[in-house]
Amino acid sequence: MTHILLVGDDLPVLEGLAQSFGALGFVPVVAHSLGEGRDLAAQIPPLIAVVSRELAAAAAGETLGIPLAPGGALVLYRTVGGALVTLSPTLQRAVLADLTLPLERNRLIALVQHVGDRARVTGRDRTGGASEELLHNR
């Protein structure tokens, strides 16, 4: 099962994403602060952490401290009409995508599926993926 961490304070957007990911077979977890998200991710590292751009900009170190599953990625989001805040160069380099939600919801879902596929092919997923298949084919 692929875990997705959603961190932010825009409850309707996060709830909509959680429902969409759940319907696709992912396991979404919602956190309202970076500290709560980091604690949840420490228990079961998510493949993708989707974090509010405002929270990430205010605490880049805490955002980068969120543990991810092998092959995982960090994605930032902002809502339509939300303030565009400046990100540190370190945080900018660590981010796979910076999306406007809910407008780019389909793009986010495609990114999550791509990262999941990439983790499976490279053998970085928890179920063994390509590594397990190679062992069975020998």
Present the secondary structure layout.
Elements lengths: L2 E5 L3 H13 L3 E5 L2 H10 L4 E5 H6 L1 H5 L8 E7 L9 H6 E7 L3 H17 L7 H9 L1
Parallel strand pairs: 1-2, 1-3, 3-4, 4-5
Query: What's the mean pLDDT score?
Result: 88
Domains (count): 1
What is the CATH third-level topology name? Rossmann fold
> Reading side by side through the largest sheet, how are the strands ordered?
2-1-3-4-5
Q: Beta-strand percentage? A: 15-25%
Biggest β-sheet strands, sense, barrel: 5 strands, parallel
CATH class call: Alpha Beta
Order of helices and strands: EHEHEHHEHEHH
What is the level-2 CATH architecture name?
Answer: 3-Layer(aba) Sandwich
C-alpha termini separation: 26 Å
Low-confidence residue ranges: 127-138
How many runs of DSSP E, i.e. beta strands? 5
Helix/strand/pairing category: alpha/beta
CATH H-level superfamily = Response regulator
Helix content: 40-55%
Care to describe what's here?
- Helix content is 48%, strand content 21%.
- By secondary structure, it is α/β, with parallel strands linked by helices.
- It has a single domain, classed as Rossmann fold, CATH 3.40.50.2300.
- A 5-stranded parallel beta sheet has the order 2-1-3-4-5, sandwiched between helices.
- The chain is globular, with a radius of gyration of 15 Å.
